[in-house]
Amino acid sequence: MRSLVRVTRIDRPEAMLIAPDQAYFLRENMKLRLLNARLALLSRQFDTAQSDLASVQSLIERYHDRSSRRTQLAQEMLRQVRARRGGGRQMSAGRAAGPAHRLDRSAAPRPFPR
Fold it and tell me: Where are the beta strands (DSSP E) in the chain?
């Protein structure tokens, strides 16, 4: 009987309640946000890019397994892109678009399994 039941603590129950079709829309929303951030960088709208990257980062933190290596890599790439603006200096689209492009092309981390 013990092998049939597994009890774990869930810190964020909303992550476990995502249906497979909702997980698809979550990934697509993240892709659209990353594309919007890329376009904002190219048009030198740095505040818009920062807000889109922040929303992607919050989605990753809320709905993805933080212990997964893929999730950790995605978060690290987002931190690198968001840190490019530091020092009171405007970030150039060329420098910041590189990691954003890699993040968009990498396989998106998967939400928690049901």
Answer: none
Q: What's residue 104's pLDDT?
A: 56
Tokens of 64: 């993805």
Q: What distance in Å separates the CA atoms of residue 83 and residue 64, rounded to the nearest whole number?
A: 22
Which tokens go with 51? 């807000």
C-alpha–C-alpha distance, residues 47 and 37, integer Å: 9
CA-to-CA distance for 103 and 27, rounded, in angstroms?
13
C-beta atoms surrounding 64 within 10 Å: 22
* Rounded-to-integer distance, Cα 66 and Cα 102, Å: 20
Q: In the 8-state DSSP scheme, what is residue 112?
A: P
Query: Please, is 45 exposed, middle or buried when counting C-beta atoms within 10 Å of its C-beta (0-12, 13-18, 19+)?
Result: middle
Which of 61-65, 70-74, 82-86 ranks highest by mean pLDDT?
A: 70-74
